[in-house]
Amino acid sequence: MNTIHKTTIKSIVVSILSLWTVLSCTKDFEEINTNPNSPVTVQPSLLLRQVIYDYGEQMSYEGFTAGNLLGQYSTALDFNLFDRHNLKSPQLGGNPWPIFYKNLRDNEIILELVKENETYTVYEGPALILKAYMTAGLTDLFGDVPYSEAFKGAKGSVTPKYDSQESIYLDEGGILDNLDKGILAIQNYDGSIALEGDILFNGDLQAWVRFANSLKIKALMRISDKIDVASDLQSIFDSGIYIQENSQNAIFNFTDGEPNNFRLARLRVGDFNNYVLSETMFEIMTNLNDPRIATLFRPFANSADGEFNGLINGIDASQTSISPADYSLTGTIFRENTARLDANFMTSMETQFLLAEAALKGLITTDSKSLYELGVTQSFDYWGTDLPADYLVTSGAYDSSGTNALVQIITQKWIANMINGYEGWIEYRRTGFPQLKAISASLNNNIIPVRMPYPAEEEALNNVNYTNAARATNDNSINVKVWWDVN
Questions:
Q1: Tens digit of pLDDT for each residue in 283-323?
Q2: What residues contact residue 106 under an 8 Å CB cut-off, 6+ apart?
Q3: What are the boundaries of the signal sequence (predicted)?
Q4: Which fold, 44-260+338-472?
């Protein structure tokens, strides 16, 4: 944990008053009515800092609450309509749509500023990479979304059309294209102006290139059942220019105290104690004899011997009496000791597991076992837990027979990504692993959802385009697969 530079993040409030001066009728009127002490454009350094922090802070909370319920890391004891898979009724999380669109809009302003002022060229590459990163998160959750006509503010349509997920991934200006253009922009930058406001890499442009290539590996694996990605993956792997160790992770650190500690630490204790260890995660980690369970969760209060206990997801809280003392609460790193916790954008461990899967499937030529073991080792290190000397030869030993190896790779990646719960659910949808359980009192006909629903505000504010998108998803059903999902 916290292997990258320590960054103290001050509370950020960016107020964008105007991006362009309003032209007046006469020169004298303009001179008289212009405040020389009030900037007419926001600085890209402030926007970059704002986008990274706001997105990372909010999606860490979303991942812990709603994402961890969908991925069955944790279970909600109350306020749990979402845990019962009524995803149109978010409670204590479960509405990431405005987080994506707010930050994609602010990131687009950076790109517009780059076009208008060549002194801001250093921001182009990172902004394109962030656009690709956030866009992938958005479409992986929802499927087809407003994209090509979105994020434009006053200069664009207030009712943008929905683009297909296939085009968002593959077309010019899409995810893969923006990653390539972001890398090229950094490689072509020969200016002397430093990248400021960068709370991920402290202005290290080569770290952004590694980040982009790890994101390319992730994107290519996500769509690998739809198109041939082998040559692209092999090229990145052979280059070695991707996140390879924890010191290179795309993260920023939370603090122990306000205002920059993990959000759950700032909520009332009842809200925090609403989340307990899920039965799914309890069984997986117990079967692995995995000591990370003591980092991610606490022994349940009524335990006599420091034991752990999990609860099945999706209970009917109105009909079931549950005592929090009988189930394991989440670990102290999520409340008392949040300085040990990161806002996690992309890590080496996730990259190693993706490459291990690629090697297993013959998409790259290398040893899958060594990549798997490296991912596991880095995961233990990331979570600040000692790796038992025999773990990789006993319960965590790699088994290359049949589908066992794929189950192991995805399961270990699922455990490692607990702070990014949505990722665990997305990868379950893509691969079918780890096998999630039928929930206790489903409000979705005992079906595990395979996409997030478009929010109600889209129906109100973008009705014509929403109606078309809803029609394509069986009335905005959470059971209609996204384009890349062939599982």
A1: 999 999 999 999 999 999 999 999 999 999 999 988 888 99
A2: 14, 47, 50, 51, 54
A3: none
A4: 1.25.40
